[in-house]
Amino acid sequence: MKLLITSNSFASCDTEPYERLVAGGFEITRNPYRRPLTESELIALLNDKEALLLSVEPLSRRVIEQCPKLMVVSRYGVGTDNVDVDALEEKGILLEVTREANSDSVADHTIGLMIDVAHKICYEACHYRQGVFLKTRGQDLYQSTVGIIGLGAIGRRVARRLKGFDCRILVHDHHYDGDVIEAEALEMASLDEIFTTSDFVSLHLPSTPQTRGLVDRERLSFMKKKAVLINTARGDLVDKTALLEALENKQIGGYGADVGFQEPMTDDEFRSFNNVVITPHSAALTVGSINRMSALAADNLLKHHAHILNMKGET
Questions:
Q1: How large is the angle between the packed helices 103-119 and 287-312, nearest 10 degrees?
Q2: What is the DSSP pairing of strand 200-203 with strand 27-30?
């Protein structure tokens, strides 16, 4: 079975998942460009493949319709906003994701962004490299109020870590797990309450028509002037123009993100703010996360291998 792997980090720390795919009978082509593929590049590489291990490339209806042999997609990650799920279903193409494999790494990164923005660690460190010892006044994460919007795998892990900082934790989601709420001593809250009350607001939602632009001009205006907005989910959850205005007008205390408003990131307008820390969608690029995602992405392909061969009439 022919397989295209678009992820550059797949099996980069431990080759065992790659070796299992080879032993399992996959004929593998890897991404030759060492960067995310365009639609046209993806079509050219995928059009004769039955299987795809997909990173962040756009698996659109156009791509799917021009790759008639495709039978299974293993998403190297959790989000599917780069995938036309409806088109896959119409074609009967199987889709798997590496659910929760990178959740702990992203949760760690989220806490790191909170502390970095609040204490201006990167800002002071950059001055140090220029030979300047610049002291700024930070604010505590300890005993602060944190609002978590989206209580999925990552949101729950962020909440658990924040308990060590003795934080009051407000949470908002369309579905609540009562056992988690009780076990972690969380407080259910409306969006308005979270934006008006929290010292830190952390976003952990998928990008959908309902969530895009969730953090708009009005909600930013509700925030405390020292409050920090954290986004390790998707860039389009936040209105970029409204955020720039809020930062310029000192309406909020800062912004920390591991996602761009478009990717690869070209959000140059934020570079001048000393209370902004943006990382290049790298939260999941830890050794542990890469190993977990690689193993699960390989598992997701191997578990469908025999079924697909049967469908093709092969033994």
A1: 150
A2: unpaired
Dist CA 29 CA 36 (whole Å): 15
* Cβ contacts of 263-272, under 8 Å, gap ≥ 24: 263/36, 263/56, 263/235, 264/35, 264/36, 267/240, 269/244, 270/244
List the one residue out of 165, 250, 151 whose CA is nearest residue 204.
151
Kindly state the average pLDDT of the residues 185-207: 97
**CA 260 – CA 232 distance, rounded (Å):** 10
Tokens found for residue 127: 């001055």
Tell me if 99 sits within 8 A of 290, measured CB to CB: no
Coil vs helix vs strand at 46: helix
What's the confidence (pLDDT) of residue 253? 98
For 288, which DSSP code? H
C-alpha span between 25 and 131 (Å, rounded): 56
Amino acid at 185: A
Supply the DSSP symbol for 36.
Answer: P
Tell me how far apart the alpha carbons of residues 268 and 259 are, in angstroms, rounded to a whole number.
Answer: 13
pLDDT for 314 equals 60
**Amino acid letter, residue 296:** L
| Percentage helix, strand, coil for the chain under 3-state DSSP, each rounded to 5 | 40, 15, 45
**Pick from 198, 200, 201, 204: nearest CA to 119:** 200
Give helix 153-162 / helix 103-119 axis angle, nearest 10°. Answer: 50
Distance CA 117, CA 71 (A): 44
Count of Cβ atoms closer than 10 Å to residue 66 Cβ? 16
Q: Which residues pair with 223 in a beta bridge?
A: none
Q: Give the Cα separation of 10 and 267 in Å (integer).
A: 27
Catalytic machinery residues: 234, 263, 281
pLDDT over 80 (residue 310): no
Model pTM above 0.85 = yes
Instruction: Give the separation between CA 266 and CA 268, rounded to whole angstroms.
Output: 6
Measured in whole angstroms, how far is the alpha carbon of residue 192 from the centre of its chain? 24
